[in-house]
Design a protein that fits this description.
Elements (H helix, E strand, L loop, with lengths): L2 H13 L4 H25 L2 H62 L5 H9 L5 H13 L8 H13 L1 H8 L8 H20 L7 H32 L1 H16 L4
Helix pairs in contact: 1-3, 3-6, 3-9, 5-9, 8-9, 9-10
Length: about 260
């Protein structure tokens, strides 16, 4: 019984600065506590044990406050992080609408695993557990890309047309909370750097192509993994838009690659 008031009190201390009414509540609770201890002294006439328990409560108070504050802080931080990530979903959805799906389409044509990846993209996940399971399957895949001139030039064109939008998207501070999506963006920026350094497809030697095939495979893996989570977001928040996007993007573009 002695732990609960202190845990609640630590929570009040965190937010009382923004609510003057809570100060009155805390003061009132303190008065009630004094009255209860006074009644205990009057009724039982045992000041030794009463003061012993008072000091015992005071001795435990710092530990109780520290533990409660830490746990509450962790819960609040986790909740706020989840809210920030949820707010990034609209940004990630815009990314796939304007850029991501076209990169997937271009790279998937050159992938050995196009049929399996197409099935993962077409899979309808209804819960976070199903999303995580699908992402784990995708992330374990070692995607093999056969990079030809058509794929190289197509990806280059897509990235060149969307370079400004990519920079604007990457500059958003809220995306830093979305670590997996941010990692995918860095992978795409790496492809852009590789293109600037290596130049046209005709200038690539065998080592260049082998290196780029590995980079393309890793980026495609991340693109599809994040696309699965984005599809669930659209399905929950914008079901009409999701169904239309699924029909246009998956059925007409990606599944056709199989």
């Amino acid at each position: 019984m002695r732990e609960l008031p202190y845990a609640g009190g630590s929570l009040f201390c965190i937010i009382m600065k923004n609510n003057k009414g809570l100060k009155k509540i805390i003061f009132s609770l303190g008065i009630i506590s004094v009255i209860i201890y006074a009644l205990q002294l009057i009724i039982f006439r045992d000041p030794k044990n009463t003061f012993f328990y008072i000091f015992q409560d005071f001795a435990f108070m710092p530990i109780s406050i520290a533990i409660a504050t830490f746990l509450i802080g962790e819960l609040v931080d986790q909740h706020e992080k989840e809210e920030r990530i949820e707010k990034t979903r609209m940004l990630t959805s815009t990314f796939y609408t304007n850029l991501g799906v076209y990169l997937i389409e271009a790279m998937l044509k050159a992938a050995d695993e196009k049929e399996q990846l197409g099935r993962e993209l077409a899979l309808q996940c209804d819960s976070d557990e199903e999303v995580r399971a699908a992402q784990e399957r995708i992330q374990k895949m070692d995607i093999h890309i056969h990079l030809d001139k058509a794929c190289y030039d197509r990806v280059t064109d897509i990235l060149n047309q969307s370079s400004t939008a990519m920079l604007v998207l990457a500059s958003s501070p809220v995306l830093l909370e979305h670590e997996s999506f941010t990692d995918m963006l860095w992978g795409i920026f790496h492809l852009m750097d590789e293109r600037r350094i290596r130049g046209e497809y005709e200038n690539l030697d065998a080592d260049d192509i082998s290196h780029l095939e590995e980079d393309y495979g890793r980026v495609l893996n991340k693109l599809i993994s994040e696309a699965v989570a984005n599809a669930v977001y659209l399905q929950k928040v914008y079901p009409d838009f999701y169904s239309k996007a699924r029909e246009k993007v998956l059925n007409k573009k990606i599944q056709k690659q199989g």
